[in-house]
Amino acid sequence: MTSTLIRGGRIITAVDDYHADILIENEKIVSIGLNLQPGANCQVIEASGMLLFPGGVDCHTHMENTFGPSVTADNFKSGTRSAAYGGTTTIIDFALQNHGTSPLQAIERAQSKADNVASIDYGFHVIITEVDKQVLEDMRYAIRHEGVSSFKMFMAYPGTVMSDDAAIFQAMRMVGQHGGMVALHAENGTIVELLIQEALAQGHTSPRHHALTRPALLEGEATHRGIKLAELAEAPVYFVHLSAKEALKHVVEARDLGIPVFAETCPHYLFFDESSYADSDESDSFDGARFVMSPPLRSKEAQNALWTALKTDDLQLISTDHCPYCMKEGHLGKINQKPLGANDFSKIPNGVPGVETRMTVVYDGGVRSGRISLNRFVELMSTAPAKLFGLFPQKGTIAVGSDADIVIFDPNEKHTISAATQHSDVDFTLFEGHQVQGKVKKVLLRGELLVSDDQWVGKTGQGRFIPRGEVGKW
Ligand SMILES: NC(=O)NCCC(=O)O
Ligand SMILES: [Zn+2]
Ligand SMILES: [Zn+2]
């Protein structure tokens, strides 16, 4: 029997804050208490002065994503290792339903990419691109028998992954009856497309036009429509990467009425705003491409509103939407990356990295700056995503019986974030040069050390697919 004792740390959960030892046996936490004694052959980890968090749960990542014009820079090997260094021990990634195929085939394909390669645990949402009777039946089957109970649908990207309202409504109605949930990418795709074509026709090709052609109002409109479709379908709904005040307003309104509407935001919307695009209209500046994600960065005012909403539970969690493309073509052999859109902003692959920095930047910029409490931090990073997406209490907390996914975190260590010292295959981080306080020191997945003082001590492939139960019930 393998056993580990973590001694003397300060345990933080979504509701508790206390000093105790944690005893781990066979992947699980078996005891929490004072002065626990190690048995024979027990590994002892000293953690005095350290905070102990449940392993991070990032419910929005895109490893080896193929639905855009190119493949993301991280696959499940590099991406999950990078996540682990950042304190995340579970991700929920995506399985893409290609046109003419079943969601069940999508799950199988996604599993074949992750199995034996991922270093942390994982699940999938299926991206639904086509709905018919058989697809709806397969979605029901996925919820009941495959442990895949959430589905992403796009109100944007016409001609590729966008679904119309009827498809979204039918999917919501089906999954709502079976304990599942649809997650929506809410932007009015047809109007965005029109604005893009008008901008290009006027010769506007630089990255900042990405933001100008995706106005906040169109995120607000789609969010409102998505809520109405969910209400009609009598189903819960989840909004991914919420960025705009105009969208938040509708979420708040619905939640105040007791409608099961949930939403996440992402670190990039909390730490950057639209001014990051400002320089990129100069003739040869392509630098703003690093901030090309959808929805785009919003105003400073929106950023403040998001922070407030995180505090008041109008937003339930922070995920990363880790979807990295390199700024330089050919980095580690990656092709068709951000420079694809060097002469046309609409061809820049959408997405940014973030899986490794999520906990650190939110701890520093959220907890240390006084915007959120330490308990709320744990809730946003771990407990809420686990509860909302059917992983709790196996994941998302430090409790007897839970998986021993634990982050040992030094609240005092200062460091500077840089792509050069990160572990993703992408060649930049939005947080380059940011000085932060608080550092992930050790990370355990089901009791096994993955990361120890900046050293990788984990094993490729030790991550496991985690079947999920009912979602959207929290
Ligand atoms: N967000 C983004 O720009 N890229 C990733 C795909 C998505 O989540 O829409
Ligand atoms: Zn999206
Ligand atoms: Zn995404």
From TrEMBL:
Pfam families: Amidohydro_1. InterPro entries: Amidohydro-rel, Hydantoinase/dihydroPyrase, Metal-dep_hydrolase_composite, Metal_Hydrolase, Metallo-dep_Hydrolases_sf. GO terms for cellular component: cytosol. The modification N6-carboxylysine is found at K152. It comes from the Bacteria. One of its GO terms (molecular function) is dihydropyrimidinase activity. PANTHER family: COLLAPSIN RESPONSE MEDIATOR PROTEIN, HYDRANTOINASE/DIHYDROPYRIMIDINASE FAMILY MEMBER. This is Dihydropyrimidinase. The lineage of its organism: Bacteria, Pseudomonadati, Pseudomonadota, Gammaproteobacteria, Enterobacterales. The gene is hydA.
